[in-house]
Amino acid sequence: MAGVGLSSRLEGGDHVQSVESEKVQGVLSRLVTLEPRDLCNEAIVEKCRATRDLRSCGRIVEHSLNSCNHASLCAECVQRCDVCPICRAPIRSFGTPVRTRLYEDCCRAGMIRSRPGGATDADGHPNADVRRLWSFFDIALEYGLVSVIHHYVSDVCMDDMAVSSNATVSLLLDGTVVKDWCRRTLSHIIWNLHEIYGLGSAQMRYKEAQMGRFSALLLGLSEVLESLEGPYVNESSAPIIELQQLIEATRRVSQHLDVMSWCARHNFLEDLQSSHSSISEWRLAVKNRKLAATDRAWHGNIQGVRTDTDVRTSTLFIEDAMSNAGFGEDDENAFIWETLELQHLRQTTTLSSWRREGVGVMSNLHASGMLYPPESVRAAVDLIFLEASSDLILAKKAIFLYYLFDRHWPGTNNDWKSILDDYVVTFGISRHAMLESFVFFLLDEADDSALEEACCLLPEVVSSTIHPKVPRVLLERKRPFAALDVLRCSDGIGDVRFSGSAKNDEVSQLEDAVTAVRVRLECGLLTDAYLYQRAYISRIKSIEPKQSVLKSTGMNQHGSRDWSYEMESLVEEICWLCAEKCLVAQMIELPWDKDEERVLLNCLMNLATKDPCSSTGSLMVMFYIMRCRNQEAYLVHKELLAIEKTFLEQCKDMERNEIIKNICVQRSLLVERV
Description:
60% of the residues lie in helices and 1% in strands. The protein is mainly alpha-helical and 674 residues long. A two-stranded antiparallel sheet has the order 1-2. It has a two-stranded antiparallel sheet with strand order 3-4. The protein is elongated, with a radius of gyration of 37 Å. Residues 1-20, 116-122, 301-309, 349-369, 493-507 and 549-559 have low confidence and may be disordered.
């Protein structure tokens, strides 16, 4: 039974398996053993050069001479000619003088259905020679012989010696002809997938085998495109940018197709009831999660004195993931969507309108939750696997897994768990990555039962790659000891590394360091917080000389870090939290160095000025007395007296005035004794 070539099959022909056919096997064997340059020669349309009635015959040549391999004579003229018109080599008089050309063998085996004889055809290229070469590429891709195209690219297109004065041959030798074939093939696949996706979930299930075949074709196509990147040195040139965009589009279509096949196999989860009654109720739940996260968020990193008007900001894990992946942002690669027609794979045009209007992911999520959650499973697949870069495939799989957890947790029917297990196995997601996505969802969920379940799963999730936001969220949700366990079990989040690894010069960001200090103080570990701050700043100081050298040589791309700024932030955080927890007396006993002392005392003075009724001012005096710096203690005492006098003149609360007077008397007695 004859097979059908890729071009015709993509146009709707029935897929006929004919690998066992002797003709097909013979053609494939010949295609594999053919030299890449000879493949170019086989693609050229040759006309008979025999002279007949004082003029050339001009018929299309379907055979090559065995004696010299030239396709120069038609079947009729070879019977009456003795030599080849091109090289004058004698034609064999015994045996078979000719053999069928590769293209004719492909047509007779049913692997190519249409013969490019006119000015143009459905492939859209006006050159018949190019269309014949594309037919060979179609066969190689269809039957898994991508190496044939690879060799053509490496041995012909990338060979600087492969040149010709003939315009047609020169065109076939250029890598552009391969790139144009890839674009045309991708376009055919997209339109066929568009037809399949439009069938509906019930009928799409019966197209799973055909979708699997297209997936294999896309993988082969992606490999061919990657091999074309070799000859380009300047990555900013127009050809390489266009090629990279084509590679990106092919990968996105492939990734989208794989998930669509999985969804079609499970009827797009229509048989599983969602834990949300409607999309409106789901979006309201997401909005409430955002509000709850904002309400429980701690004050931002302090700069000076805290006030009641400090802005509190917080984001959900799903927000961070989608923002990092660039969902909903203006797509710089308009070529991918407009020229390559990826929009035909989507179910709706909602995201296209968002892109034209310039609506960002965060504004949508904050305002109305339009972007997340998507209105259906199909919309979620289109959003996640078509919008974001193909390089973020692991992140996209995790986001879709988060979506599945959000859609079905905590459903009473255990069928959804088996569906999720199948998704994890199908796409090679590790148990650790699966649990990590689940924990992120549970920490976003405002329900207390979700928080308890997340804490139970944390021991399996904690690793050196754990999201640094996890301890922060646990702290905000009144689980400081769980946050401390995460910090201690993870290799480097909140703990400075001292090993000889490649990450020695990488320290936690300031925001994560502030979280680590807060966690320790919430757990009552003041000394631990102090030692962490000291080790953190010491590590920054140790890498500063290296960054200075890199900066002087022009190799430092990020600039040096200001250790004094980060030290001030951490010491201020310790000071303010100790004041809130009445730990100032223990704090002043710690051995602060000169720089830390300056920040600490400035912070304590601000506290004493803000609330003279507290014991902060007296403890400042005690700080100097403990270190036998009596003169400085006396000067601070005088400054506090002035502050208290001003406060007493303005305050009409007799009870508070009495407290301040008692504090002033006791501190004066203490200063007089020393």
